[in-house]
## 1
Amino acid sequence: MKRPRTRAGLAAGAIGFLLASLLAACSPRTNATALPPVRADTALARGAVTDHVIVISMDGFRPDAIARIRPRTIRRLAREGSHTLEARTIVPSRTLPGHMSMVSGEPPDVHGVVNNEDPDETRWVVDVPTIFHLAHERGFRTAAFFSKTKFRQIYEPGSVDHAEKPTNWLGLRPSWTTAGRVERHLARERPQLVFIHFAEPDYVGHVFGWMSPPYRWAVGWTDRALARVLAAADRAYGKGNYTVILTADHGGSRFTHGSEKAVDMTIPWIAWGKGVRGGEVLPAGVRTMDTAATAMWLLGIPRPGDWVGAPVEAAFHAPASGLR
């Protein structure tokens, strides 16, 4: 079934999505004491900062929402970690091109993903190495949890050991449900690289407007889902034994995004956890391509020499060896 394209159809879908998010957030959590045991940690790779990296993308999350909406968990990560509220995304500032740059370290004119619509299900368009491919090639386990169906476009077949995306008619999944899927997986596995995508801020922004009351609710519910993910990671890896990068693909204003305006192009970039310098405000110049390079640097994986993205080393204590 195709997703609704009219404003009325989008509004109906958004209301249903918001209700689903609210109901999911009010549902009982998984009983953590009943979770099965997990495997022991592996040793740090040479030059690595951490064994485990979790990249979290909040679709359409504007950095000024942190001060205006005051999401508790995100504010804590920014306060305790290193952050900038002036990172930049790519042109066009849209979901699929932005996320492809986030995981490939390359701009759209290199990775080739410029279309923001659902790709042909029979065709995989990934033509450049991604963080999933590079980590998997090194023998690391990878996992990805997408809250939009169309994210099948940003990873290569066989590069993700465990991937989940919605299959409903909207092509969307509430962040609380996504967080629950992460929680269940981390009860069984300890992947070295985890990618998590939350959809509410973007979808609600398109229908009700960025910074509208529903957008504020969406950010709040997503923040609660983030807290659930961190609690699951604490149980799986141990507190202080993993590193989080929290960012977004683009901003937005009124009911859309995609332009070169600052409100569309400016995104948050927050590092928190193992190896991170606390209380640091990062210098200007962080780009969405740097997320991929930083994730690989943290795990001790050399990045391709032609990547545009570079590790945001200012956010971290240096690893034992000078890997670049």
## 2
Amino acid sequence: MTQCQREATLEAYEHWAPLYEPVAHNPLMRVEEEAMRHAWPEVKGRRALDLACGTGRYARLLADSGAAHVAALDFSAGMLRRASCTTRVRANMTQLPFVADAFDVVICGLAIGHATTLSAWMTEVSRVLADGGTVLYSDFHPEAAKAGLTRSFKDQNDRTHTVPHRCHSAAAQESAAIEAGLKVTAVREVRVGIELREPFADSEEFYRRWHGLPIVLVVSACK
């Protein structure tokens, strides 16, 4: 992802922030969260990071699950201002301002496609994750992106924005995880018309055209 793409991504999220609720607020996010909860690690009494937290929906779920300490990190000031987590950090997710072994659990929702490189992302996650720790992340599926689907939204002025996304294949993600000292333990796909079935505006045509296409990828790995 180029500097221009990084700036475009940040600009998109700054526009989205005023409307971005700290809960799963559309069909894609709701089915993504369901798949994440299906693979949810044990977090009670553990140190947890909501990486690329947005407005902190996973930080809230981590706290509700009994985590001893939760930190929320994002590069968008607008998003962070809306997160209710006590420890909020503005930073790049490939340059984490934490010491090694700082967390037992890292959760990241729908963001790895914004990483400049997979290796940098995986290396940093592995570095801040303690031995025996777990990382659980999701992303807009690379197959959906290749097919031409995008993540887009309308801002407060009814203007449409598309969030830039870099395709990292599932195989590339697993390879990067291994190189960073992580072991992939589970992979789950959310498919159009199968797991994703919730009606929305013009959904009948969407489900007919894209039936069976993987739209969300969920990966769990341990150190």
## 3
Amino acid sequence: MSTVDSAVFQDIRDAVRTFVRDQVVPREQEIEDTDAVPAEIRQRAVDMGLFGYTIPEQFGGLGLNTYEDALLTFEFGYTTPAFRSMFSTNNGIAGQVLVNFGTPEQQREWLPRLVSGTVACFALTEAEAGSDPSGLTTRAKRDGDEYVISGAKRFITNAPLAEVFMTFARSTGADGADGISVFAVPAGTPGLTVGPPDRKMGQIGAQTSEVFFDNVRVPLTALIGGEEGKGFGAAMRSLVKGRLNIAAVCVGASERLLEESIAHAKTNRQGGTPIGEFQLVQAMLAESKAELDAGRALVLAATQRFDSGEDRRIGPSAAKLFCSEMVGRAADRAVQIHGGLGYMRGVPVERFYRDVRLFRIYEGTSEIQKLIIGRALIRE
């Protein structure tokens, strides 16, 4: 349950909307060209509390619930995904590991720092452990009063910027999910190396890279929760909530794509006639509007059921599946409406077309979401 008054939250949402549209949107091309979010935008996000808005108030955060998180994320999704990526792992998959599973000492050590702008990353994915992380091979071997971690991760969001790595490793002799634990590994620990930023199709400015652990030694206190074998559960719980967040980002991106399409259809002419007067263009706009509204309604309903505890499995996967596929269709229509111009670099819809493709892959592919939903329905 949220601890923020509804009027206060509305003020927060209004401030975020204004900031995104007035300060971030005009600098999207700069972010694309430099592969980085400007320092002043980052600092403003820290000052607004965006690096810890889901973290409990006792640690300096805003304590927003999942429903409120979605409403804010609609606003974040309106601009380049690199903006949200700065603080998404703090509020989501990495930060929630600490919120839900950290010991009181670990929470006191790290959560206030995340709120103040320290970046956490979620080091789970490996070359042969993506959609099925139970097969990860990174090892954490106990040696006296330390663990020694060895292995490699890839596609780790914010790794080049991170100051703490929530690192998943196999620490027991058990196979599959039962043997996985999670450790807080500070950046700069000897043996921890971050590779160069990946060169990606889209989402430029949201840096990802490989991470290597070469006999990295951490104290026993780095084991999240102080108990081995709980890492897989921590990962899955964080990822389930993260799917709702991704779905909300897709809604925000769809709104932007629709607005860009409408503006172009009203001003661009063919044969002296605005293309918005052509019925087939209107049909594409109508399809994007209908799917946008459906996606928004689905996300809000799913987040309410998540917060109440009614559904924390099917709803998040259904929202992520529908919205990530929906925004891909919206981007395709937007490029089509823009015609040849929509294929040119520097035009927002071209960039969004590349950016949104990833939403169908990370936090669990569309195929994985279908399996989760189908299996859950059969069990029920």
